[in-house]
User: Fold these one by one.
Assistant:
Number 1:
Amino acid sequence: MSVTVSELDVTVKTFQEGKGEVQKQAQQQLNEFKSNPDAWLMVDKILQEAQYMPTKYLGLQVLDDVVNTRWKILPRDQCLGIRNFVVNQILQASESEESLKANRVFVNKLDLTLVTILKQEWPQHWPTFINEIISSCHSSLSVCENNMTILRLLSEEVFDFSAEQLTSTKAKNLKQTMCQEFSNIFQLCNEVLTTANSIPLVKATLETLLRFLNWIPLGFIFETNLIETLISRFLEVDHFRNITLKCLTEIGSLQLGQQFQYDEKLVQMFTETLTVVARTISVESNFRDLYAKSRAAEQEYILNLAIFLCNFFGAHLNIVEKLPNPDYLLHGHFYLIKISLIDDREIFKICLEYWTKLVQELYDEMQQLPMTDLNPLVNMGVGGLANGGTHPSSLANYPLRKNKYSQVLTSLRQVMVEKMVRPEEVLIVENDEGEIVREFVKESDTIQLYKTTRECLVYLTHLDVTDTENIMNEKLQRQVDGSEWSWNNCNTLCWAIGSISGAMNEETEKRFLVTVIKDLLGLTEMKRGKDNKAVVASNIMYIVGQYPRFLKAHWKFLKTVVNKLFEFMHESHEGVQDMACDTFIKIANKCKRHFVVMQAGESEPFIDEIIRNMRKITLDLSPQQIHTFYEACGFMISAQGQKNVQDRLIESLMAFPNQAWDNIIAQANENPAILQDAETIKVIGNIMKTNVAACTSIGSYFYTQIGRIYHDMLNMYRASSQLISDAVASGGKLIE
């Protein structure tokens, strides 16, 4: 080729560091070089003579391309030449610790190239590779360290990524060869782990071992001193404890078949690991503060501990539960309780997944009990689990697993209440018309987290409804007395209270809810400042909206709540009107029948009163909030079974929009040009949206209203189209 290495250096440097036209030209030259089928013949010179390191990376890129696309058609002597050249380059660059450190990125790229060659050559054309790499380990510690990296990369390629990059036959062949030759690799790893003192070498070996653990024959793990070495030699050492804990997690996650009798070894590993962890971080520590103040490596250790406990319990909880001494079982779970309180969402999600699995299993076990034993009242038609949580006293005499966890579950209830997240996310966005509107986010990380946390708390309530009620009442008292008052604490508690709707039987729910509402109303009176009052008020609205069963059973309370919502609709504080409208539509949908029937002590159905006073109620609401109000009233009207009454209600509901519509139609008939007026267009859009809102909830019964405005809508559409056509004809097309 006509290009020299020094010229290539200049071109690569121009591409990397230049700008504008010169950079583009350099890129073009490099693309031409890489596409030249003979470019690879220069790779040896490039790697030996290039002064600019990215030029060497370019050489390896070209070589990788040849290995991946043309290896099978190259003569064997050329294949061997490339192979030996790459091996020599690696040995040369890693011959000393200083050299390896200085050329780390380059050596890593060389290692990847060697693994690419191995996938083509090994074992068929290079059967001695494993023996060769093990032999070369004895030449120097730095070579041994890098060889560990090569073995790790090879393991990843064969066992983790093979499905994407290799044929199934090739992958199977590589896996079989690796397993057959693993005893030599294990011997090397074991030798390093038991005798080496070089920190980089031991770290590289542990990283490599981590990749091996999910596929090597189990005898290498459980019938050797590997676990003991990991725990006794590395778990307490700062440099190694994170990677060691990851290795132990991998072992603890292994799903062992019935034919393997390794339970004793697993229990020993768990108890010894927990003992060492306790010496590092006491279970009594405040993990939330500790995590916040810790360095990255210490935070990683806490994360790895959470993963270890969750994975081990997830796979082998039954063998820990069988231990005669329950201390290790409880100790491990209390570590998870403390870790769950850390202000880190990803850590909480890891713990939450395990907690939900555990409480579901405990609940399912409780459900297996004969229903007559579980709740003697069930034979008399009085509520059991189907109608809410069972009283814990009726379960105390059964040898249930949940009894072992009573302290843990009490702490877990407190955690779930404290960590409850916002039930739904609302985005304030600007629509195409420039209006500020609210959009409900259907699926987001927060909503998914809320659903899982709620599921866990509902199971916990079923497992012990009294404990859940007591915890929530105590936390509420601490809001009232001010010892734990904050907006966040008040919000999370109220979201938690709302989340367990339906998990209590009706009588318990009534008592609990009356206490909660009474305390929150008292808190509203007690708090000074509009912001504080608004937070409590919005939480009251949220909770009552979550308990339709209670509202349906107590009409006077339901009416009082709705009237209170109407008051809040005049409140100017940010978010209160939105919350009032959202709660109103929620209640209207869930309790719609109660608004259209005549209630005891009333002179008319409540819907009539609402429609009659609607102008006054919605006076301070934004157009979008008014649409929500119309949709809510539509839900109520849809529950009215008598058609003549339903038509009358629809006519009354739509009276104001229809009046505005009639005025515009009358003006448009006299002067069609008003349809071009910006303010008129805005009013028409608002009327249409009001009709859509009401139609959405009323459904097919809305056709009488549609019939009333249908012809006028068609005429308006025709007139608007004509105005657009005229504007285009006179002004020319704006967009070609």
Number 2:
Amino acid sequence: MTTTESTIASTPDTTVSTTQTTLTTQPVTTTTTTAAVTTETALTTAATSQEHTISFYNGEVLVLSYSAVEGEEILLPKNPFKLPTETNYYEFLQWNGYVENMVVSDDVSFYAEFTEHEFTLVSDTKTISEARHLAAVQYINQYLLQDYPEEALKIHHGTDAYKTALNVLVTDLVASATTDLEKIQIIYQWVKDTIVYDNECASPYPEDIFETLRGDCLPQALLMVDMFKTIGLPASIATGIRGSADIVVEENLDQYIGHAWALVYVDDKWELLDPLFDTFLPDLDYISSWYYTEMVDFTVPYYPNINLDAVVGVYYFDGLYYPVDDGVIQYELSGLSFDVDHYQITWRFNSNPNNPYFQEDPMKITPQGAAYTDGWVFFAYDQYTPYISSPSRVLGQYRPNGQAVSATIYQTEDNTIHYFVKNSEYMQIEGIELEDLYLNWGTLEVEVGAHFKFLSWFDMIDHLYTVNYTIEDENLISMDEFGYITALSPGEAIVRYKLENPSGGINGEGVIIFLIKESS
């Protein structure tokens, strides 16, 4: 079995680490409170147009705020609006002081009339495991089947070559099957009989296990998910603990070895498959007795009375996503990355609600700390850098829930090759054919003799910058005056860069890492 390790890192500066701890479930205690109507300033008509701050409070706690120009209609959070805390959640029923079609003319604050729902913790692991599994199913029902059905069949990682080869294999495997159930039985059995369990040197990425036929539970489960999607069946990955509910104690989750399994939607319901433990379509009682779900689709879904001490990563609540560390919701993070057995997951969060960079529906005002939903757009602005709207969303770098797509290479109709690095950075590659690019452990790999160039966001505005490159090992690669790289010998190549603006200041720096292998 694989150990599931999670490290949360804020972007850009702070790093915090977490360990897995406790969990909860069941009855909800409810109390209702009405706050007094308070406004910071009376709304009056101003002669000149300027920006003002619109704020929403729960008592003295700022829930969210945003900037608006005079004359604009004041936007409200969706109604009812729910906000989680570590021990309860608030359901805001209305914002006192607001009237219909209210327009901006000054700074103004609204105070909430709300219901407080307290969490009541329970300790029975089987009860909790059932609640977590059902919450996982409810989440992927909502996210993959209802809200974004196009996501249900997308394979976000890997190369086009991997997806093509996988399609050829799976199509051949299930050629004789007449029902979807027969198809998943064939795929399950192929993984069980073909993939050798190896937890010492295996990559977490399914394209690697597809090539080597060796790997532990995470890439096995991810490979099954990709195979199901290839034949048109919605599927998702789940991670957590596989062990008897009589033994597993959630207060000590970090003492247990992590595990991963697949979920597939067949015959109008989600089914669990785990070939490493001979588990094929178990019933709910068996799942509750043996499978403690921590994440589904690398997301922790809310369920009644969830204990955030048991949450590592990103917590889904009422249509929004929040980063959690040490049982505390981190409202100040702008980004978050965590590893699940070396498979890197990256998100972007709305750390500055006064400047929501992208919102699909401007009437949805999201609270500070919540993830960008329905897309995210890169934003940069200073005296040397104009506003840049990157191709991130158009190309699908960010999923609708704010989760970044990573470790993938593909080519669009204009012949542009797009490379999404496993840490969510985006680059284009030119001067080389798509079939000469590989992924190894989610990292770009080329053969000795390859000649190509990376294009990053700063290349779009490079007339404003001097870009200085440094090659760490000149025995591995060379670079000409135009930035084209030639791979000289096998190894891990590292190229560092600094962006110098016209005044001599450094606007940014970074590193590009890729692998070189012997030519075939």
Number 3:
Amino acid sequence: MTSDLDLLGQFAREQSQDAFTVLVKRHVNLVYSAALRQARSPQLAEEIAQSVFADLARNAGKLKSDTVLTAWLYAVTRRTAIDAIRKESRRQLREQIAVELTNMNATANDWTQIEPLLDDAMAALDETDRSAILLRYFKNKSLREVGEALGTNDDAAQKRVSRAVERLREFFSKRNVTIGAGGLAVVISANAVQAAPVGLALTIAKASLVATGTTLTFMKIATAIKLKLVFGAIVVTGAVTAFIIQQQSQAKLRGENESLQQQIAQLQAANAGLSNRIATIGEANQLPAEQYTELLKLRGEVGVLRRQLDESAQEIRALQSAGVRVSSLNTNSPAPQVHIKARFLTMPSDVLAGLGGLTRFNGILNLDTATNILQEVESRNGVEILGEPEVVTTSGRQTQMRVTQVISVITNFCLQETNGISSIAPQVASAETGPVFDVMPRILSDGYTIELPVIASLTDFLGYAHSTNATTPVHTTAGQEIDVPTVSPQFRVQQSTNSVNLLDGQTLVFALKDDHVPTDAALMELDGSKSNLLDRQTLVFITANIVDPAGNLVHEDAGNYTNTPPPANNQ
């Protein structure tokens, strides 16, 4: 009997269909059985078997001479089955989410009727009932937290909330809006509070600083918000001090001076507020220690901004004395643009190890190398492209790309009572999952180098983990004890921050690192197919090209140089 490797060699050399058919007949029972044990689905097991033998056909000429084909097929079957189960689980999860969203969307008409009347209905409640509704359904507080805020216990808080919901229902009923108390609670919890625009908190905080002369500094506020906004504030502040005569006009210089002067005026206003208080008290050291420290920081920031303003003015004077007419620059010429394309690829850890591990995917690649590596990565089983966002942005401008979906997750269950009938209703909240990419490219003075600070992140919803106590006992108004289930949605957040200088057309590649993962106890409660997501690594490829306003490459040789840009073309 011809050996497996001989048949495989014959197929690789001659593309002999007969030889490959013999191999399939020999091993199909093994492959199908192994797939069926893991997939528990005959149809899925057939698909896995087809994929395994397709891999064998593709790799026929690459297997070593000492390969035991049976062992190779078994290993590939297991890996392919795990990947297929993970994809199937994700599909089922998406379907489950779609069903939940459909169910919640069924209440959309209810919300459209309730929304214009909700604030009037809330105003009609007495203060205690209104507080109970706000805490329970607007802020999604637990009954214990509601009770503590109202100065009562859990049972009394539950009764107060149920009565308040019933009064809201009666209010809407009188206005021809018919909805049950349980449904009303779900609709309010899901829709009453919407996410504010990104950056609004920072904008309000800054405006409040100027208006009230508060002692908090901009740095203190920046550290209190998300890393993305911190990143944007730091880069924008740094951009104020940069001056490149080849790419900046006199109008921008004047704008920078005006911006610095405005910041000085703001800080001086805050400085003056504390200084006036010092004069009132008599001595600076009588201020509270924290406020005295803030005063010193404000004075220091004023000094730094004044120095930056002086340096900018000195640069202008130096250019003018050297015979450069700043005013003659073409202020109408468009700012340079950068085309950014990001690729998020996720794969099992063993696939990444087979590609060379993390050390191979951490650095800067030229065009040919990046193309070859991407082709190699995408050809492997188990590799999934999560998103390929791209954008054209002006040099020096921050931009954000998102390939995300907003899902609704159940955060808790609560007991509702309507006309003496008790029901358990879910409380839901919105969550954004998928890749998010922040970047602020800046073209340097040589016209080829791109300064590229980036923040990339990926959020995965893993599923629900039951808490230590699977249920929480609550009591109805009639005194009956009912066990309300408790759940905990689990997420994995991967993130990485980088700042590099790329040459036009080059690609930056790096791996995301775990920023937040569920606890071991929570993972034990997760469905195995979902917890397998933790055994996956995510690579990010970012390519930057300098383009003209029409979107054409500025440099035809972009991406072909590796170490230094071409010499400047002096005219």
Number 4:
Amino acid sequence: MSQNRVSFKVGIPFFLSLVVLVALVQFSGQRTAEAISATAAAELVQAFPYQTGFPRTEPKTIEFASPAVTDLNGDNRLEVLVADGSGCVYAWDGAGQPLPGFPWKSGSACSGMPRINGPLAIGDVDGDGQAEVVAGTRGTGNAPGARGRVFVWNHDGTLLPGWPREMDWNDLYGSGIAEVYSVAVANVSGDGRLEIVAGTSNNAANEPGDHDTRNLYAWHVDGSSLPGYPTWYRSAGIWGLIGAADLTGDGYAEVIAGRDHIYVHAYDANGQQLANWPIRTYLYPDKTKWGIDPYVEFTRNAPAMGDLDDNGTVETVIVGKVRDPLLAGATVNSAVMVLLPNGQRAPGWFSPQLGNGAPIGDSFSPNQAPALADLDGDGQLEIVVTLTDGTVRAYRAGGTLMWQYDYAQGLPLYASEPVIGDVSGDGQVDVVFGTFSPDGSANGAVRVHGLAANGNPLPEFPLALTHEGGSDKQGVRAAPTLADLDCDGDVEILVGSWGGTLYAWDLPARYRPDLMPWPTSRQNNQRTAAAAAPNAALATARSGDNLTLAASGAAGTLYLPIITQRTCG
């Protein structure tokens, strides 16, 4: 069979491994006749084998730290990294063997230390051609020297000069523990280099008003702050995930964040809010009386950015909780909002799309993080989001509901951020996410779910979590990651569980980067949550990258499973 030939020059910030395929491989399986109930996970027969060497049980707990797949050490092989609830970073090779020099410690040990809550951010921040790893930690207290910090490690585990950096804290009015909840790396200043961005819980909740609660940071590689950073707004902290995307078309990223109040923020390279931002988010923009009208608040949130309708304008998608002042501020629903760079609501989104009502549990809710991808091949991005009402939903760019799926089935279950990619081998993208029981009462029902692009369950799903142990913390809070970890050309699903187990399932479906539009938490290892345009998985991801494809011959298919800047050996 003749083969297409591809020549390339690549500077892509997340995935590159090379596999030549001469045929597409699909798989099929017997679809379950009924929804899986709360049967013990060990009683379920797994449809797919675990990757050799997995699961791994060294981590303690894994909060929202999605696995990161990268060629860390430059050996042309892929590794997987994950951060845990003891503030340590673990790493294994594609065969599940621990990498030398790991775990990296943010504290004195890998037991009893404060957690790393969010996903690791990975990128070449010092321009040496090697990946650096960024993590944010929880503090042991709120006094100087005990607060949360941001770490930046070289690929060999040594800290970059100027790191770690400790967060600020409002000693007079702050509530809770000083923690860095989210990190990302992005070209914010426009100098062609990646900066380190972080959001923290610094707040003044005990004294509402406009107090110094600096909690959104942007640093150069040497640890010095960008002009105008850190920023704050009134008394609200950041307990969710931040994002970075080019909203203004100037070629570099703005920093987007929701805070624990009724505003969404977007900052430029100088730490200044964009025109008409922050956006005040009453549920209905024509009903804005404080103390009377319902509003959308962003205690836990995760903005995602993309050109939804392919018109050249990048929209911001964010989900918050609806609070009703007439019900003592109770959370009564979830709201999906789409905002334009000019601060207006996007067409079709004048009124947010709502869930089915109040959260199904009263525990600390997940981020309700959206994922963006073209599900139906119409050239526009759809929005896929898991809500706290027990459903996962897909919305079209214009605001209409495409489908919804009841993942909770009446049980107290929440879901992780979804990821999107072809895991079934049929040439169409699928939706993959995990579930967890916030109070532990439905631990027997936690699973990894797979849905087709039309919202129907995939054959052989859901997948059981067989190594959760006896902890009350079970299931999946962090987004899965879709990758070709062992560079054999097929898909692995990697999942870090709340109980501290790293799972890796080996699927027969071919890994196709052009069908992996949202393969990990926040779309990429830089954790920016900036979506590529539909059908642009092989396009450049930031200014200065180059990719040239030259093909000949009509038969055969060449796939580039993109994992890092390195090639699979």
